[in-house]
Design brief:
- This protein is about 45% helix and about 15% strand.
- It is an alpha/beta fold.
- The strands form four sheets. The chain has a seven-stranded parallel sheet, with helices on both faces. Strands 7-10 form a two-stranded parallel sheet. It has a two-stranded parallel sheet with strand order 8-13.
- Strand 1, helix 1 and strand 2 form a beta-alpha-beta unit.
- Helix 1 packs across helix 7 and helix 6 runs parallel beside helix 8.
- The structure holds nicotinamide-adenine-dinucleotide and thymidine-5'-diphosphate.
- Thymidine-5'-diphosphate binds next to helix 6 and strand 8.
């Protein structure tokens, strides 16, 4: 039995991960440390909340005393760090919390993990640390880190801290850098859920700039299988890029969603571009495919339909999020974030 501290497990990717792990294996005890910011939602985890191999703790990864206490209490032997402020637009509006959580928070986890001599520290990172590509080329693990937004620079800071703990202290760090995820339980501030929900309300769909920015999309389940593999088999001190080679222009995605929902393209509204907007991301994932035998299973054309169907079937979930009900409930239960 392994005792694993999973951070940020009430968010989009982390909750999909915990649900997947606890339904598919019984050799991990998971302590989920999550601050329950606006992006964290315990309803994402109702299917497994009573699992005997699961414990939720509300708290901040940058709270050293709490992290220490959890390592001791639960005899933690490994960490998977999903916790982060994750939205580029919010990082442009205010960057401080991004550096506090993503850089300082990760450093606190690394420090305590070092003190307790963990077996593995998996840092969940993003392709955005590499910056932006031109019309051709792919990010490889050797592409220099060159982030452009406060969000991506804070994630790059966390990656560099993690790698420095490997080089300086021999900490058992492995990093995954994944492209844009989509799927169930994604907070409706990100492109795909925002466009689905606006279209359902017949509201305008705000497309930044010329709509020709490119992202390389991966279904969240494929990402989580890569994290599980990298955690178990990934080499210490190594970075693994994760992506499904499914590049799409933003405007193509928006039109696809409108088509699936049977709505008119007249809902599209081109709006002022995001400052510093990265033009194109595209991942070369041959390293994880060759070394860890990972490969993506979901094709965009089918999984986007599944995703739209999920949002159609879970209207009350996103309606409560949009009204801010969860935040109010957690504030009543635990106090202000
Ligand atoms: P999310 O915003 O949906 O969830 C983040 C979670 O972290 C929330 O539950 C939030 O409450 C929690 N959290 C925030 N600050 C915290 C703190 N200080 N202490 C404890 N918990 C805290 O994000 P996501 O999309 O699920 O992303 C998860 C991770 O994956 C992030 O590290 C992100 O950088 C990375 N990533 C995301 C994508 C993507 O497309 N969404 C792609 C590649 C990598
Ligand atoms: P987003 O989901 O915020 O992910 P990221 O910026 O981390 O890649 O945005 C994906 C792309 O969609 C990005 O090029 C910005 C664009 N976008 C819009 O055009 N309109 C929107 O309302 C949002 C949220 C994003």
């Amino acid at each position: 039995m392994r005792n694993i501290l999973v951070t940020g497990g009430a968010g989009f990717i982390g909750s999909n991960f915990i649900n997947h792990i606890l339904k598919s294996r019984d050799d991990w005890f998971i302590v989920n440390l999550d601050k329950l910011t606006y992006a964290g939602n315990l309803e994402n985890l109702t299917e497994i909340e009573n699992n005997k191999n699961y414990q939720f703790v509300r708290g901040d990864i940058s709270n050293r005393e709490l992290v220490n206490y959890l390592f001791e209490k639960y005899n933690i032997d490994s960490v998977i760090n999903f916790a982060a402020e994750s939205h580029v637009d919010r990082s442009i509006l205010g960057s401080e919390i991004f550096y506090r959580t993503n850089v300082i928070g990760t450093t606190v986890l690394l420090d305590v993990a070092k003190k307790f001599g963990v077996e593995k520290f998996l840092q969940v990172s993003t392709d955005e640390v590499y910056g932006s590509l031109g019309a051709t080329g792919l990010f490889t693990e050797n592409t220099p880190v060159s982030p452009n937004s406060p969000y991506s620079s804070s994630k790059a800071g966390a990656d560099l801290a993690a790698l420095s703990y490997y080089h300086t202290f021999g900490a058992p760090v492995t990093i995954t850098r994944c492209s844009n995820n989509y799927g169930p339980l994604q907070f409706p501030e990100k492109l795909i859920p925002l466009m689905i929900i606006n279209a359902l309300h017949n509201k305008k769909l705000p497309v930044y700039g010329d709509g020709l920015n490119v992202r390389d999309w991966i279904y969240v389940i494929d990402h989580n299988r890569a994290i599980e593999l990298a955690f178990e088999k990934g080499k210490i001190g190594e970075v693994y890029n994760v992506g499904a080679s499914q590049e799409m222009k933003n405007i193509e995605i928006v039109k696809l969603i409108l088509g699936i929902l049977g709505k008119s393209d007249s809902l599209i509204e081109y709006v002022k571009d995001r400052p510093g907007h990265d033009r194109r991301y595209a991942i070369d994932s041959s390293k994880i495919q060759n070394e860890l035998s990972w490969k993506p299973e979901f094709k965009f054309e089918q999984a986007i339909v599944k995703t739209v169907e999920w949002y159609l079937a879970n209207k009350s979930w996103w309606e409560r999020i949009i009204r801010g009900d969860y935040l109010k409930y957690y504030e009543n239960q635990y106090g202000k974030v």
